[in-house]
Write a structure and sequence with these properties.
about 210 residues; mainly alpha; 9 helices; about 65% helix; elongated
Length: about 210
């Protein structure tokens, strides 16, 4: 296995330019998909020269991987307000509502998220598939950390399979978004998130068995 190159140290100005390029690429991919987004399109949208763009990204694949990293870093980012501690039933509900509201705001149309990137890249690009998978795992671990805190406080039963609950919630998000964007209606996402949250709530210590 080849060693990953160490990231280049950037000046504040360089960081801002790089971020502007990645932001432009993200917005274009949301509208046109990966295949429909060219390097020249990104260069023009970011307002940089070709030499500037290639100073930060030596290929389209390198730029796409930066977009994947950006979307994974905007942790559990389906909407605002961004929830950073999913450690209560209220926080989980707020995060689900933010995801639903995001689809309402976009009319259930294009978005550049890990799910849409996976649909385009995971089959033919092993490096991108691995990056996307790692992003999903980070999201899952955040949910898992919150559920673990809830169990430790005695809010979830000790026999709850927290890994399964975290995966079910993340799967509900991704599957619901896919159906909502395909059908152009928010109801599939609402249904999937409500079902996943109800499943988690069935393990509450005060739930009626």
């Amino acid at each position: 296995m080849t060693e990953e190159p160490k990231p280049r140290r950037l000046t504040p100005k360089g960081r801002a330019t790089r971020d502007r390029i990645v932001e432009a690429a993200t917005e274009l991919i949301a509208r046109n998909g990966v295949a429909g987004t060219g390097i020249e399109d990104v260069r023009a949208a970011a307002g940089v020269s070709g030499s500037q763009l290639y100073h930060y990204f030596d290929s389209k694949q390198a730029l796409i991987r930066a977009v994947i990293t950006r979307q994974a870093d905007s942790v559990l980012q389906p909407g605002e307000p961004r929830v950073t501690a999913l450690d209560s039933f209220e926080a989980l509900r707020a995060w689900a509502d933010a995801a639903i509201e995001r689809q309402v705001e976009t009319g259930c149309r294009g978005d550049c998220n890990l799910g849409s990137l996976a649909g385009e890249l995971s089959v033919r690009d092993e490096e991108s598939r691995s990056d996307i998978a790692n992003g999903f795992l980070r999201w899952k671990d955040l949910v898992l950390d919150g559920l673990r805190a809830m169990r430790d406080r005695g809010e979830l039963r000790a026999d709850a399979d927290l890994e399964e609950l975290a995966l079910s919630l993340l799967s509900a998000l991704q599957g619901g978004v896919l159906l909502s964007q395909t059908m152009l209606q928010v109801r599939p996402l609402e249904a999937s998130m409500n079902a996943a949250l109800a499943y988690i709530h069935s393990f509450a210590v005060d739930a009626v068995g």
